């Protein structure tokens, strides 16, 4: 009988231990804050690029993008020189710091006390997503739908565009 040590060594990690189950760690406030920061940056970029494209490709349409500061921007669309759509987005709002608030129509650049709706960060059980809450707008009927950042940007643009 050969009792050499190498005959008893486990040569495969899989044979040494079974794969332990992977448990999903719930997102921390840090995770949510980082996700919100990314969401705001991508929504801002989506609006800026969409405004530029709209202004370049549509006769009689002028657009304006105004960055108030890192946490707030305004988008405007003019048709034949007349304002047809304007909105303001900012981080924070009625639901606290875990949201991006928005306001349509006659907007006040300096006051963030009123908004038409907001986008909140939520844990959907798989990861972080966004949920739209809008009052009195042509928002999707099911506002409990968990959206990706791109889906949220597209939905907000569709609500805004004239």
What does this 3D model show about the protein?
This protein is α+β, with helices and mostly antiparallel strands and 162 residues long. The chain has one domain. It is built from 3 helices and 6 strands; from the N terminus they run ααββββββα. The protein has a 6-stranded antiparallel beta sheet, with helices on one face. Strand 3 and strand 4 form a beta hairpin. The chain is elongated and about 70 Å long. The N and C termini lie far apart (86 Å). About 4% of the residues have low confidence.
Keyword list:
alpha+beta, six-stranded antiparallel sheet, 6 strands
Broad structural category: alpha+beta
Low-confidence stretches: 136-142
Instruction: Give the DSSP E fraction (strand runs of 2 or more residues).
Output: 25-35%
For the record, the count of structural domains works out to 1
State the separation between the terminal residues, measured CA to CA. Answer: 86 Å
**Separate helix tally:** 3
Mean pLDDT: 82
- The strand count comes to 6
Order of helices and strands: HHEEEEEEH
Summarize the biggest pleated sheet: 6 strands, antiparallel
Shape: elongated
Strand arrangement across the biggest beta sheet: 1-2-3-4-5-6
Rg over C-alpha atoms, rounded to the nearest angstrom:
24 Å
